[in-house]
Amino acid sequence: MTRYIFVCGGVMSGVGKGVATASIGKILQAKGYRVSALKIDPYVNVDAGTMNPLEHGEVFVTDDGTECDQDIGHYERFLNRDFSTVNYLTTGRVYQSVINRERNLEYKGKCVEVVPHIPEEVISRIKKAGKKDKEDFVMVEIGGTVGEYQNMLFLEAARMMKLLYPRDVLIALVSYLPVPPKIGEMKTKPTQTAVRTINAAGIQPDLILARSEFPVDEPRKRKISISCNVRPEDVISAPDVDFIYQIPLNFEKEELGNKILKKFGLRPRKQDLKEWAKLVRTIRTVKKQVRIGIVGKYFETGDFALTDSYISVIEAIKHASWANRILPQITWLSAEKYEKDSRAVLELKGFDGIIVPGGFGERGVEGKIKAIEFCRKNKIPYLGLCFGLQLAVIEFARNVCKIKNATSSEFAKKGDFVIDVMPDQKALLEESRYGATMRLGAYKCKVIPGTIARKAYQKSLVSERHRHRYEVNNEYRERLENKGLVVSGENPERNLVEIVELRNHPFFLGTQFHPELKSRPLNPQPLFLEFMRACLSSRARA
Ligand code: GLN
Questions:
Q1: Is the pLDDT of residue 128 over 60?
Q2: Cα of 358 to ligand 1 centre, how many Å?
Q3: What is the pTM of this model?
Q4: Whose CA, among 198, 251, 378, 415, lies 20 to 30 Å from 450?
Q5: What are the percentages of helix, strand and coil residues in the chain, rounded to 5?
Q6: What is the pLDDT of residue 302?
Q7: pLDDT at 46 > cutoff 70
Q8: Of 133 and 208, more confident
Q9: Residues forming CATH 3.40.50.880 domain(s) in the chain
Q10: Residue 466 Cα, ligand 1 centroid: separation in angstroms?
């Protein structure tokens, strides 16, 4: 039997609902239950693949190639499980399948209506997530904030499920309690209003997770309790933290896991957060810093820098750093700056390692190539992720192989396409079939002996996740290899180049896949581990 815990957001977005959902899942898992999680995004987009990362943050990719919300990444990292398409739904997906069924006469002549047919479809998908691996719990996170028009149908699904299965459904509201600096007091009114709003949808929260800059004190817990109709002990303090992996431990300080189990009439089967607590202790104690620069373009929005676009890269850096007992100091470097001012690239000397992460389109390309050239020549550890591999190959072709017009057909009309569109992708692009058509998800990669990659993986065959349309053009491979580019990873079925690296360099490696997507806090990704090791020695040399 599967139980469902809905997590909704009150007051405002961006207060860490995804991490709260993953953390509740973690503590239930630690008590011996099988826990899955499902993210509901209110967008009409069928998946996150067609959204600009500046709009929506990183596009996370699962093994089965689902392009989904970054919260699925949090679920995988916290629960240390691989999720799939059943763990993600959007308004677009729900409507698409209802309309398809209507076209196939599956409603048998009935009038198909928004209510109840849409929430019913939502419910059937939620149940599917529970059935897939016989889950004890499914955490169901409803994106957005209560009161928004676009998440009403999902709240309706939650209300209907609670009515149908009152003992198996629990509703948690993650709310925000501001402490306005001029007032100096934690205010509960916005939360009271959020609860009234969710009440208007026919839902009474069972738990309120009180997100705030500070812990919530007893008087305010009582105030929330009385006005929001929950018991004081069900108001859980969730103050800001320095690092998200602390949160399950903070929740456990409030005995959240046992409180939840009790509501379902269950008991803990074990208590196993030891490894997790050990990791948190390590994070607290490591002091030695390494300086990592990320050269990208998806973080400048007006006056604010958003790092959400690269969240898995940041987390992978952290996991690998902590395992090496170091603390990464991450700096965002704008690729376009190096285009405007070629001396600006000299600032890279101040870093122990540089990453060029995934990217699309022409903007910033030449700046990234300059940064890569600088890392190659100045022996600064370099890790290129997908686009970061492609641009490293272009740089090598231009400056080492002297193929002056080396470029990619992604952003140039003519030239020597050392990076070219994959043949099967060409037709898709010509027909403007963009949605979910890239080379997506997990593919095998053969790792060649005697390389950095092999040293890192210690395995001859690995599986990593992809999201790309372009690849190294094999027609140029011999010329590149003759000049010293090492192809250290290859797809066994299609001979696609998956990893390249350089000898006579402390660490210069690029991957066509996204290794960051499979990094977990207790199981860091091998290439990131090796890269961070190289950064540490480069720091020692400096
Ligand atoms: N734009 C490149 C491609 O489509 C790289 C994609 C990426 O970095 N994820 O192949």
A1: yes
A2: 6
A3: 0.95
A4: 378
A5: 45, 25, 35
A6: 60
A7: yes
A8: 208
A9: 286-541
A10: 9
Q: From the alpha carbon of 360, which atom of ligand 1 is closest?
A: 1
- Ligand 1 pocket member 154 (CB < 6 A): no
CATH topology (fold) of 3-22+30-187+196-252+262-278 = Rossmann fold (3.40.50)
Q: If we measure between CA atoms, which residue out of 385, 360, 384, 386 comes closest to residue 372? A: 384
Closest Cα to atom 6, ligand 1: which residue?
468
Cα(298)–Cα(96) distance, integer angstroms: 30
Lowest-confidence segment of 148-157, 313-322, 525-534 by average pLDDT: 148-157
Calculate how far, in angstroms, residue 287's C-alpha sits from the geometric centre of ligand 1.
35
Which has the minimum average pLDDT: 55-64, 386-395, 453-462, 514-523? 55-64
User: How far apart are the C-alpha atoms of 373 and 503, rounded to whole Å?
Assistant: 15
Closest residue by CA, ligand 1 atom 5:
387
CATH 3.40.50.300 spans which residues of the chain? 3-22+30-187+196-252+262-278
For 157-187, how does the pLDDT look when each residue is reduced to its tens digit (9 = 90+)?
999 999 999 999 999 999 999 999 999 999 9
With a 6 A CB cut-off, is 467 part of the ligand 1 pocket?
Answer: yes
- CA 385 to ligand 1: nearest atom: 8
Distance CA 368, CA 434 (A): 25
Distance 469 CA to ligand 1 centre (A): 6
Would you say the CB of residue 410 lies under 6 angstroms from ligand 1?
Answer: yes
Mutation to probe ligand 1, out of 50, 356, 469 (largest number of atoms < 8 A from CB): 469
Q: Find the DSSP H helices in 57-113.
A: 70-79, 91-103
CB of 18 closer than 8 Å to CB of 184: no
Q: What is the residue-wise DSSP string for 168-198?
A: TEEEEEEEEE---TTT-S---HHHHHHHHHH
Pick the CATH number of 286-541 from 3.40.50.1220, 1.10.510.10, 3.40.50.880, 3.30.750.24: 3.40.50.880
